[in-house]
Amino acid sequence: MDKTLPSDACRYFNEAMETLDRPQIEALQLERLQATVRRCMNSPFYKERFEQAGLKPEDIRSLDDLRRIPFTTKKDLRDTYPFGISCVPLRECVRLHSSSGTTGNPTVILHTQNDLDEWANQVARNLWMVGLRPDDVFQNSSGYGMFTGGLGFQYGAERLGMLTIPAAAGNSLRQIKFMTDFGTTALHAVPSYVTRLYEVMQSCGVDPRKDTKLRVLAIGAEPHSEEQRKRIEEMMGVKAYNSFGMSEMCGPGVGFECPEQNGLHFWEDYYIVEIVDPETLEPVPDGEVGELVLTSLCREAMPLLRYRTRDLTRVLGRTCPCGRNHVRLDRMRGRSDDMMVLRGVNIFPIQIEKILMQFPELANNYLITLTTDDDNDNMTVEVELEELFTDDYQRLQGLQKRIQRALKDEILLTPHVKLVPKGTLPVSEGKAVRVSDKRKVYQ
Ligand code: AMP
Ligand code: ZN
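Structure tokens for the assembled complex are given below, as produced in the milestone run.
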């Protein structure tokens, strides 16, 4: 565990690990995979899985042998609720995080002290990578509690040595007061919340460029388009870096953009990354979209082998001008379970967002509603207008038609488009809810 901070002049938080070349990454991964597999034999769940597959820990002799190990799924986590996957006795665990599922048991993730220390190192590595140093002031607008974005960023930012403000979610006026009074230079927020925060800033006459010292945003936890990121950077006058994490792999820290902003570096000293075809479960070639599958390499309490994340992405490259060779993945398109199937066409909310964000007349909040009308499935896209010109009917109608046409080119269906005044669509405190599916389900 690396606890000593590098000097402020260093580009890397952990230079040795961040600049490994491909053969070194693979050698380290094999060693850590073998140790993880041995550790997994303490888990009743994995022990049984291996027995069923006729596999022994000694059979994992190369990284290719990873493919002999069965996948782990969210259902497995639910079925073994609460502690069935754990590899250590409960007395060795110091933290539990849990995500509430919409159906069935929630999922539980256990951590030893070492897990928490390594997690803090991962987050600190990311924040250092985007230029944050102990002199920075870091404000975290994530919910604190079971959601890992709160404590995950808290410990990581503290590990880096920054003054860290656990502002927690919501209460925008208080967030803005903290930012101006405490000289916040870096903020972590879900992207949909940044746009809300900006609107409140505008309404109380605060200009983030002039009235705050903000220079870095970490945005993530929910899918967002490149267009949305650009808007956020523009309005806040800062760089916004995409941050990927999931509770099953600790939380934030798993993948993060470097200053090149050319995809997310996924840390291969902590995880093995596979991209597979969600149907055949066979690996897809670099550049092709598939499901992200992660194997944790440093977790003690609850390592997960070949965990199917349901997130869809692709490999962009395995080198980078920043000097880090850890694999670069494209921003997530969404989860396979976010995909809407409308009249046989597969559509992701992010495709709609990408189009909407190209219209300067539109604000950032939108809602997609699916309904069944006269036995036909329909989509309505409600989107907020940047400024009100509802009395100019012709202009409004023209805009609506242009949006409709652009959406049709992207999703191959013509949705209804409703332009609504700013501030009328619901805003959630955590991850944004973009789709409301009210279709009739035929049994
Ligand atoms: P949770 O475990 O509740 O924090 O949720 C993790 C899930 O959030 C991931 O599996 C992704 O679906 C989503 N997620 C997290 N970070 C990002 C990101 N940067 N871009 C897109 N989706 C994300
Ligand atoms: Zn890079």
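Residues 1-337 form a domain with the Rossmann fold fold (CATH 3.40.50.12780). The chain has two domains: 1-337, 340-442. Further analysis is deferred to the final report.
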